[in-house]
Amino acid sequence: MPMPYFWWRSSDYKRSSILRPEILRSGVSLSGVPLRQRAATARKFRPTYCFGLFVFLVAMKAPLPAQDKPAISVDVKVVNVLATVRDKKGEIVTNLGQDDFKVEEDGRPQKITYFSRETDLPLTLGLLVDTSFSQRRVLPEERGASQSFLDSMLREGQDQAFLIHFDRDVELLQDLTSSHQKLESALKLLEIAEQPADPSSGSGGGGGGGYPGGGGYPGGGGGYPGGGGGGYPRRVRGGTALYDAIFLASDEVIKKQKGRKALVVLSDGVDRGSKETLEHAIEAAQRADTIVYAILFADEEANSDGDLGRPGGGYGGGPYGGGPYGRRGGSYPQRFPEERRDGKKILAQISSQTGGRLFEVSKKQTVDQIYRQIEQELRSQYGLGYTPDASAGLGYHKLHLTTKQKDYVVQAREGYYLER
Mind listing the domains of the chain with CATH numbers? Predict the structure, then answer.
């Protein structure tokens, strides 16, 4: 069984790092602390705590010298919002001032205390590329366009970027860097997940009887979803840990960075096999003050192959095959038309709730053209800030940003999380 690209902290069910295979072999995490040392530190924590408690109790017996009243410091939370404004023709508006904007939190007007045009602030950018098998025909175009985008977008010594690819696993190919050369080298490492074994080779359902040899569940006629020949289920084509990739990029890589932060996700939007949910992925991006731009790039021909099933495969010919699922020989229902629709909705939800935008690759709009639009947006943002009311409680708060010009459309995140 291959070693995973991330490790899971079972105590609170949150990933603690994204790790590449060579990092796992070296035993060093992204933070630079050896994994064994991290574990040893955790084991030593409880005795150290008990010793500290003992010293504290003993010290209580000694008289305390008179001390001045300690100074009280209060952390004031400033909510920062990045916004792009368009007129009724869809053109970006770049000449607005602070007085042109109005912001509401949970329906209550807020006073804007900070305003700027954000073109000069440092940018932290993450590229998240879907390398599941369904993307095999579009990856070369994505790779070339991504390189041109990074070369044009990143200012040497001021901006930085990182690269993640995801299929069944999530892998950090390049950590945060300002080096165009390192990012170019990382893009060359992008490769499609391994194609599964040929169904005709005997792995995965189709023929006659029970589990091994004859296919499917007892009763014959098929195998597990997508079958072909017989025996145990074939290896399903890849997996797409989209939600995990967004969660990890936001929570582990970009959260502590200052300035403007954005993720660009290239995918068909269909998640298969993530441990995180869609809601958790969006929440992680919102907590990290990160905009997510989504580029929907679906290879229709690849998807039509049917990752989950083909005629003649599927569940066995007993209670499943040829019955409610319809096809003679036991075929699992084709899911891709519905999944493609859902993928677009999912990417639209992620981008809109984080203040980004959904783009769709088509014959009229290439990946390269979409990247140029994203670049224009990132160079034309407004930055606004305000201090929330003292009565604002911890947790999620809805935001609504508008302009006094009613014809203008404001693109900004829909909410934020107030933390301690």
Answer: 6-59 (no CATH), 74-195+237-298+361-420 (3.40.50.410)
